[in-house]
Amino acid sequence: MILYFSGTGNSRYVAKMMGEELKDEAVSINDRLKTGNREALVSKTPFVVVSPVYAWRLPRVVERFILETAFEGNADIYFVLTCGGDVGMAGKYAKKLCVRKGLAYQGLMGIRMPENYITMYQAPGREEIQEIIRRAKEPILLAASLVGGGRKFPEQGPTVANALKSGIVNDLFYPLFVTAKGYHTTSACIGCGKCASLCPLNNIRMEGKQPVWGSECTQCMACICGCPVTAVEYRKKTQGKERYYLEG
């Protein structure tokens, strides 16, 4: 079973490609979070969690989902993290999570996909997006081949830089950057409610035709990048920036 959490479509794309290659079902963690579904996940095949990397580790919202959900059947679990650069030492923390959960860790692999975290970085141009996605297909198929063959993902050796990124930087990232304070709409907003429907944590409610953000935000970029009229902004950090959203 392929489980995916995706804000702007990168991880959904990877999960569905792996699902097609492995002839296995792809299940949206977003949908389960949005509906509060905590039914047990049952699979005869290994579990594969596909998610974006957040500050060089698995997103905490995905960690909580794994801890709060029963996994039955096959105990093996793989992790595939989409990233704009690298995944640091995310595998070290995913392995610890598996020990807590009683799952058999089979490794973690990073897949480079187009950058989407536009509150901090720039999204690539259209041609670069197409090239990055084209290059991603080979490692995606490799990941699927390893899972299908029952082989572990190759382990990445530790480095001081990666230890700092996945450790101290990750610890600072959440209190400093993971907040909904600053999201707002411009006069271009048409009140369609798509931002509210896309939010996996139900953190956006519509008051009339205006979206209002609550305090439960994971900075997945779904609302800002999925807006059909580019009406959602984050403080002044996203003004004039291209949005990235991969449909599918």
Description:
Keywords: Iron, Iron-sulfur, Metal-binding. With 248 residues, the chain is an alpha/beta fold. It folds into 2 domains: 173 residues, Rossmann fold; 57 residues, Alpha-Beta Plaits (2-Layer Sandwich), CATH 3.30.70. 37% of the residues lie in helices and 20% in strands. The strands form 4 sheets. It has a 5-stranded parallel beta sheet with strand order 2-1-4-6-7, with helices on both faces. A two-stranded parallel ribbon has the order 3-5. Helix 1 packs parallel to helix 5. The longest helix has 23 residues. The chain is globular. It starts with a strand and ends in a 14-residue tail after the last strand. The relative contact order is 0.17. The mean pLDDT is 96.
The count of helical stretches stands at: 8
- Read across the widest sheet, the strand sequence of neighbours is 2-1-4-6-7
Strand content: 15-25%
Major β-sheet profile: 5 strands, parallel
Sheet/helix structural class: alpha/beta
Radius of gyration: 18 Å
Helix content: 25-40%
The run of helices and strands is: EHEHEEHEEHEHHEHEEHE
Give the overall silhouette: globular
CATH class of the largest domain: Alpha Beta
Query: Tally of extended strands?
Result: 11
pLDDT < 50 stretches: none
CATH names the topology of the largest domain as: Rossmann fold
What is the domain tally?
2
Task: Name its key features.
iron-sulfur; EFR1 family ferrodoxin; alpha/beta; 5-stranded parallel beta sheet; Rossmann fold; Alpha-Beta Plaits; metal-binding; 37% helix; 4Fe4S_Fe-S-bd; 11 strands; Flavodoxin_dom; 248 residues; 2 domains; two-stranded parallel ribbon
